[in-house]
Amino acid sequence: MAVVAAGAASADLVIGWCIFGLLLLAILAFCWIYVRKYQSQRESEVISTITAIFSLAIALITSALLPVDIFLVSYMKNQNGTFKDWANANVSRQIEDTVLYGYYTLYSVILFCVFFWIPFVYFYYEEKDDDDTSKCTQIKTALKYTLGFAVICALLLLVGAFVPLSVPNNKNSTEWEKVKFLFEELGSSHGLAALSFSISSLTLIGMLAAITYTAYGMSALPLNLIKGTRSTAYERLENTEDIEEVEQHIQTIKSKSKDGRPLPARDKRALKQFEERLRTLKKRERHLEFIENSWWTKFCGALRPLKIIWGIFFILVALLFVISLFLSNLDKALHSAGIDSGFIIFGANLSNPLNMLLPLLQTVFPLDYILITIIIMYFIFTSMAGIRNIGIWFFWIRLYKIRRGRTRPQALLFLCMILLLIVLHTSYMIYSLAPQYVMYGSQNYLIESNITSDDHKGNSTLPVPKRCDADAPEDQCTVTRTYLFLHKFWFFSAAYYFGNWAFLGVFLIGLIVSCCKGKKSVMEGVDEDSDISDDEPSVYSV
Question: Which residues cross the membrane (predicted)?
């Protein structure tokens, strides 16, 4: 029987890995389509394109590892609280190590991308703007600037490695003994603390990006889908009226010089401005005409009811997310040990919709994993929407816009770096919504319960399954590897707690702003551009 059970388990795992492989192919295909959709056709470069696709794929693969981690720890146990026949101590340990090494690999790749590869490619193309610069000079300059990022990464790893998670028992120990203790702590953790500290530092930056972009995208994306864009015919009518008005102003100014008198300097400046405005409006007219007659416009018009349905679905998911996050944060404020513990709680004292929904879905495999995957993917797509709507800023200075078919290589690199950071914060956001589920999945363990029997005078004890929680024995419940990376340092957890409140505040502000804003123009962003090309009318979204 044990052999048969082990064979069935192996077959299930093979099927699982096949599904995961197909998922990887789907992720790579999506990343290629997404990057090619937004990159500028005139400024596209092979290295920047490959870097953007690879970075975006790493972000999506890392986000997909959380439901895989939860599934594997849950799959090792039966619903009655017993381990499956094949899930002995060695097999369980191998599965845990495989997931842990997966996190090690992906997080190390993220560190490499954020601190070396993306900065190098970015500065390389910044230097390429100068035509007189040779390839060798470009590489040297890019390496010089990238070295600063590498130093920051090394400092984070060193600080994380030597920050002890416990203190020496002997308070009278010498300085040498204290230093020796630090190295013993480093050796015992196998570098986990160093990597965890570095990733937590990046997650903190990702939290700021999520507050800025994701919170706004959660409100803007659904409402934009529901409201749609303005009518192309109406915009053409407005544009025609603007052209007539500008032409009238030009004629009025030119009429002043009909008798041979020279125009005053103020009129010359005004005439030049009106002529530039007229050229822009005529280009806009050609673009609007192309969009109105294109098959893509007609196709999008046919999909309008579907977009409204998707918008309603997305706003419902956003409300589920926000209400659950609010109740979870309120629970931490009321029942946690405070800031010194990082506002960590085990389980939930206040029920939130997601926490109630996941246990119900666990009874029908794999609905709970589908819901978690939907929330993670929604988190990523709303982040993309927020970056597209807001653009990339450095404080009050706009650096880049994200536009279909017109995004510069440097802007795509920034986009992928921001998404990498946001994905790191996604795991903590999901943990905030359902801490017990993220820690243990659907695992149960057995406890002895006293039962009174009518046949026998007295009480008897029977093993009864109970949902795994912080009180469960360590050998009965397996903690997900995600949790190990989330709570190594209490001060990061405290920062994430306050970040959640800021996230909720920005979401409400974004919701009010999105409701007050009118419909988007089919030519949004064109009027502000000074490099409009006559031969690229098809790049604007409709």
Answer: 14-35, 47-68, 101-125, 145-167, 192-216, 308-327, 369-399, 411-431, 489-513
Q: What pLDDT, in 10s, does the model give residues 461-471?
A: 777 777 777 77
Cα–Cα separations (whole angstroms), residue 35 to 224, 378, 408: 22, 18, 11
What residues pair up with 398 in beta bridges, in sequence order? 393
Residue-level pLDDT at 476: 78
Task: Give the whole-angstrom CA distance, residue 237 versus residue 194.
Answer: 62
**Tokens (6 digits) for 114:** 């954020």
Judged by DSSP in three states, 447 sits in strand
Evaluate if pTM is beyond 0.90.
Answer: no
Backbone torsions φ then ψ of 282, nearest 5 degrees: -70, -35
State how far the Cα of 345 lies from the Cα of 331, in Å rounded to an integer. 8
Residue identified by tokens 């529901």 is: 226
Q: Are 399 and 414 in contact (CB under 8 A)?
A: yes
pLDDT at 459: 60
For tokens 């090494």, the residue is: 101
Token pair, residue 406, equals 């017109």
For residues 466-483, give the mean pLDDT.
76
Query: Which token pair is 217?
Result: 């995208």
Beta bridge partners of 450: 461
The tokens for 279 are: 């050229």
Cβ(354)–Cβ(324) below 8 Å: yes
Q: Rounded distance, CA 77 to CA 476, Å?
A: 9
Both tokens assigned to 174: 């010498």
Give the helix/strand (H/E) hosting 392: strand 392-394
Is pLDDT above 50 for 182? no
In sequence order, the 6+-apart residues with CB closer than 8 A to the CB of 157 are 194, 195, 197, 198
- Phi then psi for residue 405, to 5 deg, are 75, 5
DSSP classification of residue 416: H
Which residue, among 340, 355, 325, has the nearest Cα to 438 in the 3D structure? Answer: 355
Q: How is residue 451 annotated by DSSP? A: E
As a whole number, mean pLDDT of residues 472-493 equals 75
Q: Phi/psi of residue 91, each to 5°?
A: -65, -45
Of the candidates 125, 110, 150, 111, the residue with the CA atom closest to the CA atom of residue 47: 125
The full DSSP string for 169-216 is S-TT--HHHHHHHHHHHHHHHTTHHHHHHHHHHHHHHHHHHIIIIIHH
Query: Measured at the alpha carbon of residue 406, what is the angle toward residues 400 and 407, in degrees to the nearest 5?
Result: 40
Joined tokens for residue 157: 């790893």
Tally of residues, the chain: 542
The Cα–Cα gap between 415 and 385 comes to: 11
Name the pLDDT band for 452 (thresholds 50, 70, 90).
low
Residues 6+ apart with CB under 8 A from 387: 213, 217, 402, 415, 418, 419
